[in-house]
Every structure is written in C-alpha cells, then in structure tokens.
Amino acid sequence: LFQPLSSHKPRKKKKKRKTKKASSGETLEDNDLEDIESLLEKIEDTNGLSQQTQSGIIADSRPLLYVEHRNLNPENELKRYFGARAVLGDQRPRQRQRQYVRSTWLTSPKNTWPRYSKTGIAMQLLDTRRGVQHFTFEHHREYQQVQFKFLDAVESMDPNNIVLLLQMNPYHVDSLLQLSDVCRMQEDQEMARDLIERALYSLECTFHPVFSLTSGTCRLDYRRPENRAFFLALFKHLMFLEKRGCPRTALEFCKLILSLDPENDPLCVLLLIDFLSLRAREYTFLTRMFQEWESHRNLSQLPNFAFSVPLAYFFLSQQEERSESERSQARERAARLIQLALIMFPSVLTPLLDHCSVQPDARVASHSFFGLNAQI
User: Fold this and answer.
1) pTM, two decimal places
2) 3-state SS, one letter per residue, for the chain
3) GO terms for CC (predicted)?
4) Does residue 329 lie within any of the structural domains?
5) pLDDT band, residue 30 (cuts 50/70/90)
C-alpha cells in the first residue's frame, strides 16, 4: 500500500536539499511546494481508508457524507486555480518562526489573533446508538456568566459593548458571531470572515477526543441552545467561502453541516447543496445523493433538486473521458428527469426560456400547463 509513497520520499528530500543550496536559505521553488502538498495529500488519502488505491473505488466505498480534511481548507482549492506561489506568497518562512499553536482542520490560526486560552466550553459524548455517536456542547459556570453579559450587550443595541466584551473574552463564540454580522453589514467583509474563523477555531479546540469531523457518524442536536453556535459558525463560514469563489470547500462544509443532523437538516442545507455541487462540478456526488436519498427523502419534490439533477446528468453526458454507453445513459436520464421536473413545476419553464433568450413555441406559450394561468 505504501510502496509508491516510500519510493517518492527520498527523491523529494533530495530535491528539497538542492533548492536550499541553490537559493541559499530562500523559500522552496513553486513546484517543490506543490510536490510536498501532493505527497501529504497522498499520505492523508491512505490513512484510515480501504485497501484499494484507485481513487474511484475508494470514493464509492466511502459514505455519502464523508468529509475530506484537505477539502476543508480553501487554500488547497485556491492553489489548484492559481498555483502555490500566488496563494501562499511569503507565508511559509513566517510560519516557521511562529510560536507553537494547536493544529486544527476547520481553520488555521493567525498571528493577528489573541493567544488562545480555555473559554469554559466543553463537549460531552451523550450516547452511542446504532453506530452513531451523539454529542453536545456544554457551558461551564464562567462561560454562562460571560453569556449573560453578552445578552445585555445585545439588548443595549450598541456594538461597542460587544467589542469591549471580546477584549476581555477574545474567544467568546456568540460575541464573535454577532460582531461578524455587524462588520458584514458595514461592508467590512475581511473582518467579518476573520471573526467567524476565530469562532470556529474556539469551538474546535473544545472538541471531544472521539468527535470526528469526517466520519459522518457524529451528531449534534440543533434544538439544544449550546450547539447552535457551531451550526451557525459553520453556515456563515460556508457563505463566505462561496463568495470568495471556493465552491468545492463550501460544498465540503455543507456536507459537514448535513452530517451533524441529516434526518432533520435544521439549517435546510438541502436547498443549497445541489447548487454548490454544480458550481464545484461535483456532478457524481449530486447524482449519487439523489439515487441514495430519493426513496426516503423525496428529493425530486424539491424544485432545486428537480432541475439540478438532470443538469448534472447532462454535464456528465458531456464528459469525453467517459465511455459512450455511460454518456448516452446520462443523456437519457437527463431528458427523462427534466420532463418530470417540468410536469411537476411547469411555471419554471417560461422564466427559464426568458433567461436563455429562447422564444417558446406558440403551442407551448398558449398551453394551459405552461401559459399565463400556470404563472399566476
């Protein structure tokens, strides 16, 4: 299993030494950075997965809502678009001199953040039922006191009171979320995003040792008030990622939110996940989700899935690397599903044709199914 990796390792090390000599202590070359990144990703791929090394087989054997650690980092997605040097810049040397900080998956801590100290939040394992673990966040007495001060600050309608509270308690989660909303409304997107990342970091530092972001078998109950901050922080972070042009990373966070409570889906991310899948070109994931969940969740009765799934099949039919039989099968499914979608939601046709600048046929325009009556 690890043979191809071990054969690469000495070569990577030699390369690294050469560049260090050549550049006399300067940063590594671009392609070296990318080589090391790809090596780390390969090692991560082999950890805790099935014995097969072909990516297709591994992907199919994983649960639908399996979350990959590397896909939670927007830098990895941006590096794919723009290259390592454009994204990292001069970050690497500075990071080496930085004080030791805890390694986290949801966000990476920044030099500009205050030093982290325990906040008074803890995570407990409630029980394990049918292979699914149920967790909850708990607030200790000192955190509850800060929470009361926060509620007073909100009632005062003055954001400066929240700023003062954060100066005393820099990792109080609800204050970070609230101040982020204030910054977003004042068009300070950078600060708004930074505060959300800080809230996520604060919560991740309190995770229970067996709580797993990636397994898809850990549950949190949204109805419990202490858990809500985690759902909201993840959702707000997802929205910022989508605005930054990182749909693949946003999709991974969407899967994470859904995996925390797939039965109830308290934040209704099912209304969003298909859009992100199309944006990230993860057509296979979207069609697989539809196949696995349609029978018990009736996804075809949601207008977004009704139209996005045939679109995903259409895009799959355009992929030249697939066999002709696969492509024709995808074309047939796309045609059949778009017909069913238009029968179920006929009023969508006219606006769709308007957006595509297509003039509908007279029979369609006057038809009782698609005409003015259906619109009204």
Assistant:
1) 0.80
2) CCHHHHHHHHHHHHHHHHHHHHHCCCCCCHHHHHHHHHHHHHHHHHCCCCCCCCHHHHHHHCCCCCCCHHHHCHHHHHHHHHCHHHHHCCHHHHHHHCCCCCCCCCCCCCCCCCCCCCCCEEEEEEEEECCEEEEEEEECHHHHHHHHHHHHHHHCCCHHHHHHHHHHCCCCHHHHHHHHHHHHHCCCHHHHHHHHHHHHHHHHCCCCCCCCCCCCCEEECCCCHHHHHHHHHHHHHHHHHHHCCCHHHHHHHHHHHHHHCCCCCCCCHHHCHHHHHHHCCCHHHHHHHHHHHHHHHCHHHCHHHHHHHHHHHHHHHCCCCCCHHHHHHHHHHHHHHHHHHHHHCHHHHHHHHHHCCCCCCHHHHHCCCCCHHHHC
3) RQC complex
4) no
5) low
